[in-house]
Design a protein that fits this description.
With 344 residues, this protein is of the alpha/beta class. It has two domains: 2-184 and 236-268, Rossmann fold (3-Layer(aba) Sandwich); 203-234 and 270-314 and 320-339, UDP-galactose 4-epimerase, domain 1 (Alpha-Beta Complex), CATH 3.90.25. Helix content is 40%, strand content 17%. It has eleven helices and 13 strands. The strands form four sheets. A seven-stranded parallel β-sheet has the order 3-2-1-4-5-6-11, with helices on both faces. The chain has a two-stranded parallel sheet with strand order 7-10. The radius of gyration is 19 Å and the shape is globular. It starts with a strand and ends in a 5-residue tail after the last helix. Bound molecules: nicotinamide-adenine-dinucleotide (NAD). Nicotinamide-adenine-dinucleotide binds at residues 7-8, 10-14, 32-38, 60-62, 83-87, 102, 106, 125, 127, 180, 182-183, 202.
Length: 344
């Protein structure tokens, strides 16, 4: 069995990646998630969909001793995917120290464990926010990184830098930073999706909760950006596509196909969609009208960002396969299952 440890395995992207990893009977998945933004039921959902369980340790990755015990209990871990982080842009503006402490200390601890327990392959959940306010689109991996527009974004930028300095002295570890654009949607089964414990900040859960009447009205942040319709342009990407990319990135490292010991790869669809277009796609697949208003800009948001995804194709043999309507349809199926108690 190949043992893979994922931090944040009960979170949105971690749980979908666990399902994809478990579809390979040769892989055992160990998760470390303190459930600060998720619930223990997610591990059950993963098991239900995959037909095999992942074990979740309810441990804070910032707790070095407890994290080390997980590695002691599970010798021979071959790869680590580090998803665990706090991720709400607006909250990070209000609570910068909490974000720096959680996101950076957890990263330092997990890298330390990788070195100590001789884990050779490390994947980091980074973000397109590392590119900051960009001058040229689409964004390639050569686009210079800039100070991000929020403390959250800076934890990713500094996180990437920490990994770079660490890899330079590490005896064992090879790493990839996957820079996600905007992951949305849910598992095709409708049995797993985004269900944040804290107030949702990402567009799609706010859309589906508004459509369900849980949120009275959706606010589109900003209608005066220099874009087709004034709303922000984002590169939405189906979460199952993202999950598949992690499996490929892990295989790529494990097969020694990487040219450098630390590589950076964008994960996007390559297509920019405005927030208003995303809402229209939802209204079409759900067959209803959404109650929304266009409000002020949100601090920390950039106007337009979408990826050039050719490097992921070239290196990992991966490209996004699912479009915006499929993303919205899967998210809506998941929300309806939650509403009807089919999924818990
Ligand atoms: N969802 C996005 O739009 C997006 C975009 C770019 C990058 N990312 C990054 O991808 C990763 C996963 O994001 P997600 O959307 O699945 O978020 P999520 O909040 O659903 O999942 C993160 C998980 O990590 C856990 N966690 C947080 N801090 C922890 C700690 N100190 N110890 C143990 N567990 C901890 C949370 O409980 C949660 O289950 C994050 O690093 C995020 O910054 C997400």
């Amino acid at each position: 069995m190949t043992k893979i440890l994922i931090t944040g395995g009960c979170g949105y992207i971690g749980s979908h990646t666990a399902i994809e990893l478990l579809s390979n009977p040769e892989i055992e998945v160990i998760s470390v998630d303190n459930l600060i933004n998720s619930s223990a039921q997610t591990a059950d959902r993963v098991g239900q969909i995959a037909g095999r369980n992942m074990k979740n340790y309810q441990v804070d990755v910032c707790d070095k001793e407890a994290l080390s015990e997980v590695f002691e209990e599970n010798p021979g871990i071959e790869g680590v995917i580090h998803f665990a982080a706090l991720k709400a842009v607006g909250e990070s503006v209000e609570q910068p120290l909490r974000y720096y402490q959680n996101n950076l200390l957890s990263l330092i601890n997990i890298l330390d464990c990788c070195e100590k327990y001789e884990v050779k392959n490390f994947i980091f959940s980074s973000s397109c926010t590392v590119y900051g306010e960009i001058d040229q689109l689409p964004v390639t991996e050569q686009t210079p990184t800039k100070e991000a527009a929020s403390p959250y974004g800076n934890t990713k930028l500094v996180g990437e830098r920490i990994i770079k300095d660490f890899i330079a002295i590490s005896e064992n570890v090879n790493a990839i930073a996957l820079r996600y654009f905007n992951p949305v949607g849910a598992h095709d089964s409708g049995l797993n999706g985004e269900d944040p414990i804290n107030k949702p900040n990402n567009l799609v859960p706010v859309i589906t909760r508004t459509a369900s009447g849980m949120i009275p009205q959706l606010t589109v942040f900003g209608g005066d950006y220099a874009t087709r319709d004034g709303s922000c342009v984002r590169d939405y990407i189906h979460v199952v596509d993202i999950a598949e990319a992690h499996v490929k990135a892990l295989e790529y490292l494990m097969e020694g196909k990487n040219e450098d010991r630390y590589e950076y790869i964008n994960l996007g669809s390559g297509n920019g969609v405005t927030v208003l277009e995303a809402i229209q796609a939802f209204e079409k697949v759900a067959g209803l009208e959404l109650n929304y208003v266009v409000g002020d800009r949100r601090p920390g948001d950039v106007g337009a960002i979408y990826s050039d995804s050719s490097l992921a194709k070239e290196k990992l043999g991966w490209e996004a396969r699912r479009g915006i309507e499929e993303m919205m349809a899967s998210a809506w199926k998941w929300q309806m299952n939650l509403n009807e108690g089919v999924a818990v």
